[in-house]
Design a protein that fits this description.
Blueprint lengths: L1 H5 L14 E4 L7 H8 L3 E6 L8 E3 L8 E2 L10 E4 L27 E7 L14 H6 L1 E3 L7 E11 L4 E7 L4 E3 L2 E3 L1 H11 L5 E6 L8 E7 L7 H11 L8 E5 L12 H6 L10 E5 L5 E3 L2 H9 L5
Parallel strand pairs: 1-2, 13-14
Antiparallel strand pairs: 2-3, 4-9, 5-6, 6-8, 7-8, 8-9, 10-11, 12-13, 14-15, 15-16
GO molecular function, one term: long-chain fatty acid transmembrane transporter activity
GO cellular component, one term: endoplasmic reticulum membrane
Enzyme class: ligase
């Protein structure tokens, strides 16, 4: 919601209110400072949690971008932790040591966010779903000692030196390109900012004969108002080379989930073959410009004649 409000034209009445606090979740750090400055919002509170889960946190100290806090002095008293994730599983499974147990992340190291399941404590229980198989997938066992268990949130978080927690990405959304891990949520935020806060979804697509997945940014732009030259210039300044989308898809229409998010999986399954996509698709040339991806150029990319 804040992104849509920020996209409206600047008005003299932007600060003509008595709002002291806004409270919610999902305010991206890339627009947080601009929003509070433009509308003169003294305090922002963020909460994080899942309806069925037991891992809930809140940021009430106005730290920009944070979704919660866990003290670095006495972290063991908190029923939540961030544990190292295994890159080989798309960061969806814990990375275990030689003893078979999980490992806590160091400061600024992204990892899986878990909520410890404590027997006979209703506030630390995880009741699960009707589907027992789905329930079991959300439980990780033998974490810090044999026999213990925790709720697996499915999210990657990172904690700074103070203990402030920041959302990194959903597990499975992160992909590898040029030997580096790319966070789709970070790229989505930068692309959306660069094109007027438009709805944007980023995902990896497979390219024949290349390792990893190439980034695709799908942008809702039915009027075709996105300036691709300006987008390329901006992303060159805001993203490392491996994180810049290799493809841009300008969506004429979009299907939303029940929570008003773009359906990423459907777009990802369509790949980057322009002959099977109704929307216009562009590719990043070696000169750093986005140009129209034609069926002929697609075939050249597949054959390795055009390098990404």
């Amino acid at each position: 919601m804040c992104r849509y409000i920020l996209a409206t034209p600047v008005s003299p009445v932007d600060k003509a209110h008595k709002v002291r606090l806004i409270f919610g979740n999902g305010l991206r750090p890339q627009i947080w400072p601009q929003f509070v400055e433009r509308f003169n919002i003294p305090r922002v509170a963020e909460f994080y949690g899942a309806t069925e889960g037991n891992a809930n946190i809140v940021n009430i100290d106005n730290t920009v971008g944070a979704i919660g806090f866990v003290s670095r002095i006495i972290p063991v008293v908190y029923p939540i932790s961030i544990i190292r994730a295994d890159p080989a599983t798309g960061y969806s499974e814990p990375l275990r040591g030689k003893d078979g147990l999980c490992q806590l992340c160091k400061p600024n190291e992204p990892g899986l966010f878990i909520g410890k399941i404590i027997p006979n404590n209703p506030s630390r229980a995880f009741l699960g779903y009707v589907d027992k198989g789905a329930t079991e997938k959300k439980i990780v066992r033998d974490i810090f000692r044999k026999g213990d268990a925790a709720f697996l949130s499915g999210d990657l978080l990172v904690a700074d030196e103070r203990g402030s927690l920041f959302f990194k990405d959903r597990t499975g959304d992160t992909y590898r390109w040029k030997g580096e891990n790319v966070s789709t949520s970070e790229v989505e935020a930068e692309v959306s900012n660069a094109c007027g806060y438009r709805d944007t979804v980023v995902y990896g697509v497979e390219v024949p004969n290349l390792e990893g997945r190439a980034g695709m940014a799908a942008i809702l732009d039915p009027e075709r108002q996105v300036d691709l030259e300006e987008l390329a210039r901006t992303l060159k300044d805001t993203l490392p080379s491996y994180a810049r989308p290799q493809f841009v898809r300008l969506l004429s229409k979009v299907d939303m989930t029940g929570t008003f998010k773009l359906k990423k999986l459907d777009l990802q399954l369509e790949g980057f073959d322009p002959s099977g996509i109704e929307d216009s698709v562009y590719y990043l040339t070696p000169k750093g410009q986005y140009e129209l991806l034609t069926p002929a150029i697609y075939e050249q990319i597949v054959r390795g004649e055009v390098r990404l």
